[in-house]
Amino acid sequence: MWTKFWAGLALAERTLMVCLMLALPCLYGFNVILYNLAPGLARHFDGIEELSRFLLVWLVCVSLGYTMDKGRHVSMNLLQRFIGPALLLWIQRVLDLVGALFCAYVAVLGWRFLQRIIDTGQVSNMLDVSMGWLYAALPLGMALLTLRYLRYVLFPAQRPVADDHPD
């Protein structure tokens, strides 16, 4: 059951990240072409730059958990070479627990901030949509990262091994 859950979550994150990564250059390319070929029409599409910023924030936040699941987060592994495997396992579990608590705390703070933004009715200048759409990315991303940390606390064997060298 858990294997299907994690695979489904990774597939959903990956699909969303691919869509966002494809949308960003398409939007920017359309914007550049429009400004160069039809400057008169370009003023009707001023929201593209703001939409691109929204999408970039969402891309970064959604990719947090997926990146950790693939073992691609930045890590300092110098001391790992001098610590025995048993001690290293417990140190990693403590760090994962601290990471889960911190990310859960940031997710709660992000949720409270999102509620405040929605309550005040703030809207973006160019797109005329609620700024809640922008600020919703933080609690979602931190919740996804919290799930990954909890997974590694409960099932340390599922923790990915960080690469010593890039691909």
TrEMBL record:
* Location in or out of the cell: Cell inner membrane
Task: Cite the entry's keywords alphabetically.
Answer: Cell inner membrane, Cell membrane, Membrane, Transmembrane, Transmembrane helix, Transport
Q: Where do the TM regions start and end?
A: 15-38, 50-68, 88-111, 132-150
Query: What sequence ranges are listed for the domain Tripartite ATP-independent periplasmic transporters DctQ component?
Result: 44-151
Q: Does the keyword Cell inner membrane apply?
A: yes
Alphabetical list of InterPro entries matching this protein: DctQ, TRAP_DctQ
First-listed, main subcellular location of the protein, grouped into a coarse class? membrane
Q: How does it sit in the membrane?
A: Multi-pass membrane protein
Which family is it part of?
Answer: Belongs to the TRAP transporter small permease family.
The subunit field of the Swiss-Prot or TrEMBL record says: The complex comprises the extracytoplasmic solute receptor protein and the two transmembrane proteins.
The entry's function note states: Part of the tripartite ATP-independent periplasmic (TRAP) transport system.
The name this protein goes by in its record: TRAP transporter small permease protein
Q: What is the lineage of its organism?
A: Bacteria, Pseudomonadati, Pseudomonadota, Gammaproteobacteria, Oceanospirillales
